[in-house]
Specification:
Layout (H helix, E strand, L loop, with lengths): L10 E4 L1 E4 L8 H6 L2 E6 L8 E4 L6 E5 L6 E5 L37 H5 L3 H17 L1 H7 L3 H20 L11 H5 L7 H6 L6 H8 L6 H25 L20 H4 L4 E6 L6 H10 L4 E5 L2 H13 L4 E4 L4 E2 L11 E5 L8 E7 L11 H10 L1 E9 L4 H11 L2 E6 L5 E4 L15 E4 L3 H14 L4 E4 L5 H13 L4 E4 L13 E4 L3 E3 L4 E3 L2 H8 L14 E6 L2 H12 L8 E3 L3 H8 L8 H15 L4 E3 L3 H13 L4 H7 L8 H16 L27 H20 L7 H20 L19 H6 L1
Length: 771
């Protein structure tokens, strides 16, 4: 029997051999015009394992012969790989110049393969051919990654050869563990066939989340895996070789139309519904009513507090809903294991590959935020939904109209008036806290001063005081807010953290300051911040059922004048939306740089290029913290570009303990270890309630410890096989929140007044347990 090496396409057949209709010596032209090949099954006992046939112009389709029991592969479909060469058949005379693929006939060499795949291998072959054919014809892959057809074809060829090699060497006895991160972003192609064979190691629900579709089929999984591996080959093998010498200065990233980063969204005719109005106008409430009526929808909030609030509201109303934040994932599953259609989550967690009926983007004015604005802009540009409801201030109106003109979306505007009045009092409280009334909220902009005011008010009045500030865990902020709303604490002292994310029954807002430290210098309060905080006044239930009136005051006349002027100022419209490319775009761009460059340096170069190429609608987010974090990671551990980009979004607070622990987490990723939170040297023994009254552990110490626990949970969401025993982390987090709450409740002295304590030797949770 002659085995021909047919270029460009392939079909894999297990335990079959191929006859060309009895005409083994047909010429190349004769074989080109042949309409079918017959495949007859051979006995498994004969030791025949499989034969590989590559065919350039046809994909072999299966149909059965009732009379022979064999299979007919009809030559009807186009080529899998678009090579232009006409010499698609190698005659026997070409043996010396070309390598032939041989029939693998040693069953003993692969004793488990036939047993494992004998019954299902034909179906496996069909899925593989089908997925490969779709990938070849998928123009969106080339468009999305902005690559040439030639580069894609090179990658397809490498992928094809890799598949052939892996099938030749497949051994089902080889250990294989299918991790979620490998499914989401493969780091190598060497276990491609292992992944395809073992797709059932991941639940359909997991595949649904990974791929971003509701109904998952084997074909969809095959297509996804092949596309991801093709991308890996393209970015790591093909493009670096084709673009090794292009100078950095000549490779700017064009920001003139970032909407092209999301080709799937551009295929849709979307409608953007704007719900615009001041604080306490009911805009978000109305958008959520629309969300509740759809089958598949996503609420994207700025904070996990808001995401959980919407989640709990839906659940109380009898609606099934999932929760998706950076630190917490809750799937609402029915008896068949299907996820709920509605999801409430943070803005960064919205899937831009999933198709929705309705998406709600809350606090849309945040798209102008220097650090996080990119998340809102990317969601607005990339959300795959028929309707996108955006809620926020009127300042975004012209900008969204301009963006919609670029994306081709329809725009509907719904404007809202404040549900109650807002009155600026003529006189300040004159620095006299005895003039305070129940329901007052005092605004300061540093934790140190907030705690100082709390102690002073409690000392000079009979009021109990709750506090809310940024570094306080969201769960404790919610508990403090509940104390204030219930009247258990009559006064609230807070930072601008109350601007969003908490429902507060505030009767009067009192500004204690008119400037804020930005980390470098003290700057006057921005007008939008003053308007947003002042607008929180009046968010309480009126006993008479009439519209509630909120009041605004200040500590002294100077601050009161600043507040009055700000509230009287017309709306300042947002001019640009902050932007940062999604990871797949950044990874593609990385391939254009010479190997050896540090990712942090390349990101800095992107920053310079983006600044020079951006248009009037978009400007670059402030990525200085991202660069600093990348530099810390690079100096400590070696990771892939994909991992580095993923970890650069980690919520790492700038403290020595948090940063050093995060770098330990990074080393866990690099080593591919599985570790619990108790495996790190942390003072977890201090989370015993008996330390509530222990002054050696301050509020800041417990806030840092809580940040580390939250960071561990964040890592678990992205690397579930490395960061395990999440239940213990949750328990430690609950204990930490309890101690923080009690410390605030029992606070009697200024924690910033230094007091000497005997130094105790540090112990870890594990050593305490063993002792």
């Amino acid at each position: 029997m002659i085995v021909y090496n047919l270029r460009c396409s392939f079909t894999l057949v297990s335990d079959y051999f191929i006859h060309s209709m009895g005409h083994e010596k047909k010429t190349s032209d004769e074989l080109k015009s042949s309409t079918s090949l017959i495949v007859k099954q051979r006995s498994m006992r004969r030791g025949e394992r499989f034969l590989m046939l590559r065919r350039p112009s046809y994909l072999l389709r299966i149909s059965r012969f009732p009379c022979t029991g064999g299979l007919r592969f009809n030559s009807q479909s186009p080529a899998l790989l678009p090579f232009q060469s006409s010499a698609w058949l190698l005659e026997p005379s070409d043996r010396e110049q070309k390598k032939f693929f041989r029939v693998i006939s040693s069953r003993q060499q692969y004793p488990k393969l036939s047993k494992h795949l004998a019954e299902s291998f034909t179906n496996f072959v069909f899925r593989l051919n089908e997925a490969f054919d779709k990938l070849r014809h998928d123009a969106s892959f080339t468009n999305m990654h902005n690559t040439s057809l030639d580069a894609r074809n090179q990658a397809l060829n490498i992928l094809f050869e890799e598949i052939i090699k892996q099938i030749e060497n497949y051994d089902s006895r080889a250990p294989f563990k299918f991790s979620l991160d490998e499914a989401i972003q493969p780091r190598r192609v060497s276990n491609l066939i292992q992944q395809l064979v073992n797709i059932k190691l991941l639940h359909n629900r997991q595949w649904s989340e990974i791929i971003g579709i509701e109904e998952v089929t084997e074909s969809a999984i095959f297509e996804y895996i092949l596309e991801k591996h093709l991308g890996h080959i393209l970015f790591n093998e093909v493009l670096p070789k084709t673009l090794p010498s292009v100078s950095l200065a000549n490779r700017p990233l064009d920001l003139s139309n970032p909407s092209t980063w999301y080709p799937k969204a551009r295929e849709l005719k979307r409608t953007i519904v704007m719900h615009l109005g001041p604080t306490n106008s009911g805009k978000t409430f109305n958008a959520l009513q629309k969300l509740k009526q759809c089958n598949r929808g996503y609420y994207a909030g700025p904070l996990r507090l808001l995401a959980r609030e919407a989640y709990e509201r839906f659940r109380k109303e009898g609606l099934r809903c999932n929760l998706s934040t950076g630190e917490e994932m809750i799937d609402d599953l029915d008896s068949m294991g299907n996820k709920a259609g509605l999801t409430s989550g943070t803005i960064e967690m919205i899937s831009l590959t999933t198709m929705y009926d309705v998406v709600v983007l809350d606090e849309i004015q945040m798209m102008g935020d220097t650090e996080r604005g990119w998340a809102w802009t990317n969601a607005l540009l990339g959300a795959r939904a028929k309707e996108i409801h955006v809620c926020g201030e009127g300042s975004v109106l012209p900008l969204i109209h301009k963006i919609a003109a670029v994306t081709g979306d329809n725009v509907v505007v719904k404007e809202y008036e404040r549900l109650g009045g807002l009155v600026v009092e003529p006189n300040p409280i004159a620095r006299n806290f005895k003039n305070l009334k129940p329901g007052d909220c005092l605004i300061a902009f540093s934790k140190k001063r907030i705690l100082k005011y709390k102690l002073e008010i409690e000392r000079t009045t009979n009021f109990k005081v709750a506090v809310v500030y940024g570094s306080l865990p969201p769960e404790i902020r919610a508990k403090q807010a509940a104390m204030f709303n219930s009247g258990e604490s009559e006064i609230l002292v807070a930072s601008d953290a109350i601007g969003m994310g908490l429902n507060l029954s505030i009767k009067r807002v009192i500004f204690l300051e008119n400037s804020k430290f930005n980390g470098t210098e003290q700057l006057p309060l921005e007008i939008p911040i003053i308007k947003q905080i002042a607008g929180r006044a009046g968010r309480f239930k009126s006993d008479s059922g009439e519209k509630s009136i909120g009041y605004v005051s200040a500590l002294d006349r100077s601050i009161l004048k600043t507040v009055k002027d700000a509230l009287a100022t017309p709306t300042t419209y947002l001019e640009t939306a902050r932007i940062w490319p999604p990871d797949n775009v950044v990874e593609k761009l990385m391939t254009k740089y010479p190997t050896g460059y540090k990712l942090s340096a390349l990101v800095e170069q992107f920053e310079e290029n983006l600044k020079t190429s951006s248009n009037a609608l978009f400007s670059l987010s402030d990525i200085s913290k991202k660069i600093e974090l990348l530099q810390e990671i690079e100096s400590s551990v070696k990771l892939s570009v994909s991992d580095m980009l993923k970890l650069s979004y980690a919520p790492v607070k700038r403290s020595n303990l948090v940063l050093s622990t995060f770098l330990k987490f990074c080393k866990t990723v690099a080593k591919k270890e599985s570790r619990s939170i108790i495996d790190y040297s942390l003072p977890l023994y201090k989370l015993n309630p008996e330390y509530t009254t222990d002054d050696t552990m301050t509020l800041e110490n417990y806030e840092e410890l809580h940040q580390i626990i939250v960071l561990f949970m964040w890592m678990h969401i992205r690397y579930p096989t490395y960061f395990i025993d999440i239940e213990s982390a949750i328990d430690f987090g609950n204990n930490c929140e309890y101690i923080l709450f009690q410390k605030l409740l029992l606070l009697k002295r200024d924690p910033y007044i230094k007091k000497s304590f005997p130094i105790k030797s540090p112990r870890t949770y594990r050593s305490q347990k063993t002792n």
